[in-house]
Specification:
The protein is of the alpha+beta class and 181 residues long. It has a single domain, classed as Peptide Deformylase, CATH 3.90.45. 24% of the residues lie in helices and 24% in strands. It has helices at residues 26-41, 130-143, 154-158, 161-168, and strands at 46-48, 58-61, 75-85, 89-94, 104-109, 111-117, 123-129. It has a five-stranded antiparallel β-sheet. The longest helix has 16 residues, at 26-41. It is globular, with a radius of gyration of 16 Å. The chain starts with 25 loop residues before the first helix and ends in a 13-residue tail after the last helix. Bound molecules: zinc ion. The site of zinc ion has 4 residues, from α2.
Length: 181
């Protein structure tokens, strides 16, 4: 299993709507394993395929290191679709492996109903809330080319301009390998 370099803002693949996976292949299974390794190495709790430069609708999540979520198993999601959102919305401070050193409170629905396929292409439908719902929404956004800062009010986004420019210019460091364009 390999640690893959993480693509950062403003690589064009991070703005792409990624291609659905029609058939699982050995290569895609390997990608899922490498994405888990890459995420865990970076102490991340979620990672989408375009964050390692791949144009496929696959994401991985592992929140078992977060307090109160020790029982939640690592998950790989293929072609996920959010079918319903709770009315209740909550703020939570988010970060992103593609945006080193950038954090902000993002308001999102507290619970979601989601449909996805696993790596055996078996379909699942589930309702999740709390941190798991939070991470799923963040990662599914990535598969559609959306960053967490896209959810912020323009004023708050403006405050991030300098940091975003630094990331874009490659003037940031991280404890995990970054893809340098
Ligand atoms: Zn992210």
């Amino acid at each position: 299993m390999k640690i893959l370099p993480v693509y950062t803002y403003d690589h064009p693949i991070l703005r792409k709507k990624l291609k659905p996976i029609e058939e699982m292949t050995d290569g895609l299974i390997q990608l899922a394993l490498d994405m888990h390794t890459t995420m865990n190495n970076a102490d991340g709790i979620g990672l989408a395929a375009n964050q390692v430069g791949r144009d496929v609708q696959m994401l991985v999540i592992n929140i078992s290191g977060a307090e109160g979520n020790e029982h939640v198993k690592p998950i790989t999601m293929i072609n996920p679709v959010i079918e319903a959102y709770s009315e209740e919305e909550v703020p939570y401070e988010e970060g992103c492996l593609s945006l080193p050193d950038l954090r902000a409170d993002v308001v999102r629905p507290e619970a979601i109903e989601v449909r996805y396929f696993d790596t055996a292409m078996k379909e699942h439908q589930t309702e999740v809330d709390g941190l798991l719902a939070r991470v799923m929404q963040h990662e599914i956004d990535h598969l559609r080319g959306i960053y967490f800062f896209d959810h912020l009010a323009p004023m708050r986004r403006a405050l991030m301009k300098r940091k975003l420019l630094e990331i874009k210019r490659g003037e940031v460091e991280a404890d995990y390998p970054l893809h340098r364009a």
